[in-house]
Amino acid sequence: MKLSIRTEMDRISKQKRSEIMSAVKSKDTKMEIAFRKDLWKNGFRYRKNSLKYFGKPDLVLKKYGTVIFLDSCFWHGCKKHGTVPATRRDFWEKKISRNKERDREVNLYYKKIDWKVFRFWEHDIEKNLDKTMAKIVDFLNDQKENEIKLRIDSRKCAKRHVVAIIEKAGKYYVGSDWCHNPQKDCPRSPGEDYSKCKTICKQDGHAELDAIKNAKGNTKGGIMYLIGHNHCCEPCLAAMKKANIKTVIFNKYPEKFKKRSKPER
User: Fold this and answer.
1) pLDDT, tens digit, for every residue of 189-230?
2) In the β-sheet with 223-227, what is the strand arrangement from edge to edge?
3) What is the mean pLDDT of residues 161-180?
4) Contact predicate 210/164, CB 8 Å
5) Mean pLDDT across 73-102
6) What is the pLDDT of residues 220-251, one digit of tens each?
7) Burial of residue 35, with CB atoms counted within 10 A of its CB: 0-12 exposed, 13-18 middle, 19 or more buried
Protein backbone atom coordinates (compact mmCIF):
# COMPACT_ATOMS: atom_id res chain seq x y z
CA MET A 1 0.00 0.00 0.00
CA LYS A 2 1.40 3.40 -1.01
CA LEU A 3 2.14 5.96 1.66
CA SER A 4 -0.11 9.03 1.63
CA ILE A 5 2.77 11.47 2.11
CA ARG A 6 4.35 14.06 -0.16
CA THR A 7 7.49 13.68 -2.19
CA GLU A 8 9.86 16.45 -3.15
CA MET A 9 12.47 16.78 -5.87
CA ASP A 10 15.90 16.21 -4.35
CA ARG A 11 18.13 19.10 -5.44
CA ILE A 12 21.34 17.97 -3.73
CA SER A 13 23.80 15.21 -4.49
CA LYS A 14 23.53 11.68 -3.11
CA GLN A 15 26.70 12.18 -1.07
CA LYS A 16 25.41 15.40 0.50
CA ARG A 17 22.03 13.79 1.18
CA SER A 18 23.78 10.91 2.94
CA GLU A 19 25.71 13.37 5.13
CA ILE A 20 22.53 15.22 6.05
CA MET A 21 20.58 12.08 6.96
CA SER A 22 23.44 10.65 9.03
CA ALA A 23 23.47 13.86 11.08
CA VAL A 24 19.80 13.52 12.05
CA LYS A 25 19.53 12.76 15.76
CA SER A 26 17.63 9.67 16.90
CA LYS A 27 17.40 10.90 20.51
CA ASP A 28 17.88 14.03 22.62
CA THR A 29 16.40 16.27 19.95
CA LYS A 30 15.23 19.79 20.88
CA MET A 31 11.64 18.52 20.87
CA GLU A 32 12.42 15.69 23.28
CA ILE A 33 14.47 17.86 25.64
CA ALA A 34 11.72 20.48 25.83
CA PHE A 35 9.08 17.82 26.54
CA ARG A 36 11.19 16.10 29.22
CA LYS A 37 11.97 19.37 31.01
CA ASP A 38 8.30 20.31 31.14
CA LEU A 39 7.26 16.87 32.41
CA TRP A 40 9.97 17.05 35.09
CA LYS A 41 8.73 20.49 36.19
CA ASN A 42 5.28 18.97 36.65
CA GLY A 43 6.74 16.59 39.22
CA PHE A 44 6.98 13.35 37.24
CA ARG A 45 10.14 11.25 37.06
CA TYR A 46 10.93 8.87 34.23
CA ARG A 47 13.51 6.76 32.41
CA LYS A 48 14.46 7.82 28.91
CA ASN A 49 15.24 5.63 25.89
CA SER A 50 15.38 2.47 28.00
CA LEU A 51 16.36 -0.67 26.13
CA LYS A 52 14.62 -2.80 28.77
CA TYR A 53 11.19 -1.93 27.38
CA PHE A 54 9.66 -3.15 24.14
CA GLY A 55 9.84 -0.59 21.36
CA LYS A 56 12.41 1.53 23.23
CA PRO A 57 10.00 4.23 24.45
CA ASP A 58 11.27 7.79 24.62
CA LEU A 59 10.01 7.96 28.23
CA VAL A 60 8.96 5.26 30.68
CA LEU A 61 6.98 5.93 33.86
CA LYS A 62 6.97 2.47 35.40
CA LYS A 63 5.14 3.58 38.54
CA TYR A 64 2.16 4.60 36.42
CA GLY A 65 2.37 1.79 33.85
CA THR A 66 2.86 4.39 31.12
CA VAL A 67 5.16 4.77 28.11
CA ILE A 68 5.51 7.89 25.95
CA PHE A 69 6.65 8.09 22.34
CA LEU A 70 7.60 11.42 20.75
CA ASP A 71 7.24 10.76 17.03
CA SER A 72 9.21 12.66 14.39
CA CYS A 73 7.05 13.80 11.49
CA PHE A 74 9.63 12.48 9.01
CA TRP A 75 10.53 9.11 10.55
CA HIS A 76 6.98 8.12 11.47
CA GLY A 77 5.20 9.33 8.33
CA CYS A 78 3.12 12.24 9.58
CA LYS A 79 0.20 12.85 7.15
CA LYS A 80 0.52 16.61 7.60
CA HIS A 81 4.25 17.13 7.37
CA GLY A 82 5.83 13.85 6.26
CA THR A 83 7.99 13.96 3.12
CA VAL A 84 9.97 11.35 1.18
CA PRO A 85 13.31 12.31 -0.40
CA ALA A 86 13.40 11.89 -4.17
CA THR A 87 16.76 10.10 -3.89
CA ARG A 88 16.25 6.38 -3.13
CA ARG A 89 12.53 6.97 -2.92
CA ASP A 90 11.63 3.26 -2.75
CA PHE A 91 14.02 2.74 0.14
CA TRP A 92 12.55 5.60 2.18
CA GLU A 93 8.95 4.60 1.50
CA LYS A 94 9.64 1.07 2.75
CA LYS A 95 11.61 2.41 5.70
CA ILE A 96 8.87 4.78 6.89
CA SER A 97 6.13 2.23 6.17
CA ARG A 98 7.92 -0.28 8.39
CA ASN A 99 8.27 2.33 11.13
CA LYS A 100 4.52 2.92 11.09
CA GLU A 101 3.85 -0.82 11.16
CA ARG A 102 6.23 -1.14 14.12
CA ASP A 103 4.38 1.65 15.95
CA ARG A 104 1.14 -0.32 15.65
CA GLU A 105 2.83 -3.47 16.96
CA VAL A 106 4.21 -1.58 19.95
CA ASN A 107 0.82 -0.01 20.75
CA LEU A 108 -0.87 -3.41 20.64
CA TYR A 109 1.81 -4.96 22.87
CA TYR A 110 1.36 -2.43 25.67
CA LYS A 111 -2.41 -2.57 25.38
CA LYS A 112 -2.31 -6.34 25.93
CA ILE A 113 -0.28 -5.97 29.15
CA ASP A 114 -2.53 -3.14 30.39
CA TRP A 115 -0.02 -0.30 30.04
CA LYS A 116 -0.97 3.17 28.81
CA VAL A 117 0.67 4.39 25.58
CA PHE A 118 0.94 8.05 24.65
CA ARG A 119 2.14 9.14 21.21
CA PHE A 120 2.71 12.78 20.40
CA TRP A 121 3.66 14.22 17.03
CA GLU A 122 6.67 16.48 16.68
CA HIS A 123 4.54 19.33 15.31
CA ASP A 124 2.10 19.15 18.26
CA ILE A 125 4.95 19.49 20.77
CA GLU A 126 6.63 22.33 18.88
CA LYS A 127 3.44 24.32 18.26
CA ASN A 128 1.56 23.77 21.51
CA LEU A 129 3.63 22.11 24.21
CA ASP A 130 1.30 23.25 27.01
CA LYS A 131 -1.77 21.59 25.47
CA THR A 132 0.18 18.42 24.73
CA MET A 133 1.62 18.29 28.24
CA ALA A 134 -1.81 18.81 29.81
CA LYS A 135 -3.03 15.51 28.32
CA ILE A 136 -0.31 13.44 29.96
CA VAL A 137 -0.25 15.40 33.23
CA ASP A 138 -4.03 15.05 33.75
CA PHE A 139 -3.81 11.30 33.20
CA LEU A 140 -0.78 10.87 35.50
CA ASN A 141 -2.36 12.97 38.25
CA ASP A 142 -5.41 10.69 38.20
CA GLN A 143 -3.12 7.68 38.37
CA LYS A 144 -1.11 9.22 41.22
CA GLU A 145 -4.25 9.85 43.28
CA ASN A 146 -5.46 6.28 42.81
CA GLU A 147 -2.01 4.84 43.59
CA ILE A 148 -1.86 6.79 46.88
CA LYS A 149 -5.33 5.65 47.89
CA LEU A 150 -4.63 2.03 47.00
CA ARG A 151 -1.35 2.04 48.94
CA ILE A 152 -3.30 3.19 51.98
CA ASP A 153 -6.09 0.73 51.37
CA SER A 154 -3.77 -2.24 50.83
CA ARG A 155 -2.55 -2.23 54.45
CA LYS A 156 -3.35 -5.44 56.26
CA CYS A 157 -5.45 -6.41 59.28
CA ALA A 158 -6.45 -3.47 61.49
CA LYS A 159 -5.31 -0.87 58.99
CA ARG A 160 -7.38 -2.10 56.07
CA HIS A 161 -10.77 -3.77 56.11
CA VAL A 162 -12.78 -2.88 53.02
CA VAL A 163 -11.97 -1.03 49.79
CA ALA A 164 -14.69 0.41 47.54
CA ILE A 165 -14.04 1.59 43.98
CA ILE A 166 -16.62 3.33 41.80
CA GLU A 167 -16.02 3.08 38.06
CA LYS A 168 -17.78 5.66 35.91
CA ALA A 169 -16.95 6.73 32.35
CA GLY A 170 -13.30 5.72 32.59
CA LYS A 171 -12.76 7.44 35.95
CA TYR A 172 -12.29 5.74 39.34
CA TYR A 173 -13.20 6.94 42.82
CA VAL A 174 -11.73 5.07 45.76
CA GLY A 175 -13.12 4.78 49.29
CA SER A 176 -12.11 2.77 52.34
CA ASP A 177 -12.97 2.06 55.96
CA TRP A 178 -9.34 1.82 57.06
CA CYS A 179 -8.73 2.60 60.72
CA HIS A 180 -7.48 6.04 61.68
CA ASN A 181 -6.37 4.75 65.09
CA PRO A 182 -5.52 1.09 64.46
CA GLN A 183 -4.66 -1.35 67.21
CA LYS A 184 -2.29 -4.27 66.64
CA ASP A 185 -4.68 -6.71 68.31
CA CYS A 186 -7.69 -5.79 66.16
CA PRO A 187 -9.71 -9.05 65.96
CA ARG A 188 -11.83 -8.13 62.94
CA SER A 189 -11.25 -9.84 59.61
CA PRO A 190 -12.39 -8.45 56.24
CA GLY A 191 -16.14 -8.97 55.83
CA GLU A 192 -16.90 -9.24 59.55
CA ASP A 193 -19.19 -6.97 61.53
CA TYR A 194 -17.97 -3.47 62.31
CA SER A 195 -18.91 -3.66 66.01
CA LYS A 196 -15.46 -5.01 66.91
CA CYS A 197 -13.86 -2.00 65.22
CA LYS A 198 -16.08 0.41 67.11
CA THR A 199 -15.06 -1.00 70.48
CA ILE A 200 -11.35 -1.53 69.86
CA CYS A 201 -10.20 0.72 66.99
CA LYS A 202 -12.92 3.38 67.27
CA GLN A 203 -13.75 2.88 63.59
CA ASP A 204 -17.30 3.20 62.30
CA GLY A 205 -16.84 4.34 58.67
CA HIS A 206 -18.07 2.64 55.52
CA ALA A 207 -15.99 2.25 52.36
CA GLU A 208 -19.08 2.53 50.17
CA LEU A 209 -20.04 5.93 51.61
CA ASP A 210 -16.43 7.13 51.38
CA ALA A 211 -16.25 6.26 47.66
CA ILE A 212 -19.61 7.94 46.94
CA LYS A 213 -18.40 11.05 48.75
CA ASN A 214 -15.14 11.11 46.76
CA ALA A 215 -17.06 10.76 43.47
CA LYS A 216 -18.71 14.14 44.12
CA GLY A 217 -21.95 13.30 42.35
CA ASN A 218 -20.40 11.50 39.36
CA THR A 219 -22.00 8.13 40.18
CA LYS A 220 -25.09 7.72 37.99
CA GLY A 221 -24.89 4.39 36.17
CA GLY A 222 -21.52 3.58 37.76
CA ILE A 223 -20.18 0.23 38.95
CA MET A 224 -19.22 -0.30 42.61
CA TYR A 225 -16.40 -2.77 43.34
CA LEU A 226 -16.16 -3.96 46.96
CA ILE A 227 -12.99 -5.73 48.05
CA GLY A 228 -12.79 -7.49 51.43
CA HIS A 229 -16.56 -7.54 51.82
CA ASN A 230 -19.41 -9.86 50.85
CA HIS A 231 -22.48 -7.82 51.76
CA CYS A 232 -23.73 -4.23 52.18
CA CYS A 233 -25.52 -2.78 55.18
CA GLU A 234 -28.88 -1.02 54.82
CA PRO A 235 -27.46 2.54 55.05
CA CYS A 236 -24.93 1.79 52.30
CA LEU A 237 -27.54 0.17 50.06
CA ALA A 238 -29.76 3.22 50.49
CA ALA A 239 -26.86 5.54 49.68
CA MET A 240 -25.95 3.53 46.56
CA LYS A 241 -29.57 3.58 45.41
CA LYS A 242 -29.69 7.34 45.88
CA ALA A 243 -26.40 7.69 43.97
CA ASN A 244 -27.82 5.57 41.12
CA ILE A 245 -25.08 2.92 41.29
CA LYS A 246 -25.95 0.42 38.57
CA THR A 247 -24.03 -2.70 39.67
CA VAL A 248 -22.17 -3.95 42.76
CA ILE A 249 -19.33 -6.48 42.31
CA PHE A 250 -17.81 -8.17 45.36
CA ASN A 251 -14.15 -9.09 45.91
CA LYS A 252 -12.91 -8.18 42.47
CA TYR A 253 -10.76 -5.24 41.37
CA PRO A 254 -11.44 -3.36 38.11
CA GLU A 255 -9.09 -4.30 35.28
CA LYS A 256 -7.30 -0.96 35.75
CA PHE A 257 -6.07 -1.92 39.22
CA LYS A 258 -4.93 -5.45 38.49
CA LYS A 259 -1.22 -6.14 38.73
CA ARG A 260 0.40 -5.14 35.45
CA SER A 261 2.58 -7.48 33.48
CA LYS A 262 6.26 -6.64 33.23
CA PRO A 263 7.18 -5.40 29.74
CA GLU A 264 9.74 -7.29 27.74
CA ARG A 265 12.44 -5.88 25.52
Assistant:
1) 544 555 555 544 444 467 888 889 888 899 999 999 988 777
2) 171-176, 163-168, 223-227, 247-250
3) 77
4) yes
5) 85
6) 999 999 887 777 878 888 889 999 999 998 88
7) buried
**Residue 152: pLDDT over 50:** no
What mean pLDDT do residues 79-102 have? 85
Kind of pairing between the strands at 223-227 and 163-168: antiparallel
Domains plus CATH for the chain? Answer: 25-136 (3.40.960.10), 154-253 (3.40.140.10)
